[in-house]
Amino acid sequence: MVFLKVLTLRDVPRVLSIAGTDPTGGAGIQADLKSIAALGGYGMAVVTSLVAQNTRGVRSVHTPPASFLTEQLEAVSDDVTIDAVKIGMLGDVATIAVVREWLDRARPPLVVLDPVMVATSGDRLLAADAETALRELVGMADLVTPNLPELAVLVHEPVAADWPAAIEQGRRLSAACGTVVLVKGGHLSAESSPDALVDATGRLDGAGGGVVEFVSPRVATKNTHGTGCSLSSAVATVMARTGDWTDALSQTKDWLQDALTSADELQVGQGNGPINHFHQLWARAQTLQSGQDSSTR
Asked: Is 227 considered catalytic here?
């Protein structure tokens, strides 16, 4: 990291999402705010790009002036103490520069970077000439959460063909940037869906070889829109409450697994629909309502 930071844990962490929008509510800032709330945080949002998209794809992207992005960031940080920041879609070099300068000034205690480059639909969300600037931003994050194609771009290599190769790419990125890397195996064609925290700097206590792996059964659903956004903002929220990356990912994985399992219930859109962010809350509400109905009979 470029500066020393002190993380003060809070029962209800104040988490800022810096990302683009999704009118259908499944990805981007909308997904971040739902994830933060679902995991017990107070969500705030600064918009980097206005994206005309739905579950079937991206139609167009409008990027407001960089000066307005600066105003949004300063308006939040001048007033609110920020416990964690999740960074998503940045889009271009100018946007990345603004966020980088703000991080240097505001010095938030926890930064999670989801290096958004391509949407679930395959549409590109990062200008090609911004890749170098995004790589440089990785070093300012405490955790970076690339999918396998994004990880390959960050280490200048072909996409990993298997899980061991992905872990090694994560190790190289961690060593180069001095940050913890969450390697995600969702793009692999296997019955399980692995994830791993990879750290080449020795900050993961008790991690053999600097790697902590998690494996979940792969959920048979096409409704995975916004999974990366949701996971990264959820991890940031839990980390700001617990202070432990392994615990934060464990809790997030359990929540995300259920969110994917119940995603088909939402029936949102005709393409890749969203995950069910509030499945736990709604299940508790239904249980409570059932109990109340029983008591009145």
From this structure: yes
pLDDT score, position 238: 98
Q: What one-letter code names the amino acid at 228?
A: G
Residues 162-188 have a mean pLDDT of 93
Domains annotated for the chain, with CATH where assigned, are: 14-295 (3.40.1190.20)
Average pLDDT over the chain reads: 91
Which tens digit of pLDDT belongs to each residue from 240-254?
999 999 999 999 999
Let me know if 21 is a catalytic residue.
Answer: no
Higher pLDDT, 244 or 284: 244
Contact 21, 11 (CB under 8 A): no
Q: Is 88 a catalytic residue?
A: no
Which residue in 229, 237, 252, 273 is the catalytic one?
A: 229
Instruction: For residues 108 and 7, give the distance between their C-alpha atoms in angstroms, rounded to a whole number.
Output: 9
Whether 224 is a known active-site residue: answer yes
What per-residue confidence (pLDDT) applies to 4?
47
pLDDT for the residue numbered 202: 81
Predicted confidence at residue 61, as pLDDT, reads 92
70 catalytically annotated: no
Instruction: For residue 237, indicate whether it is catalytic.
Output: no
pTM of the model: 0.92
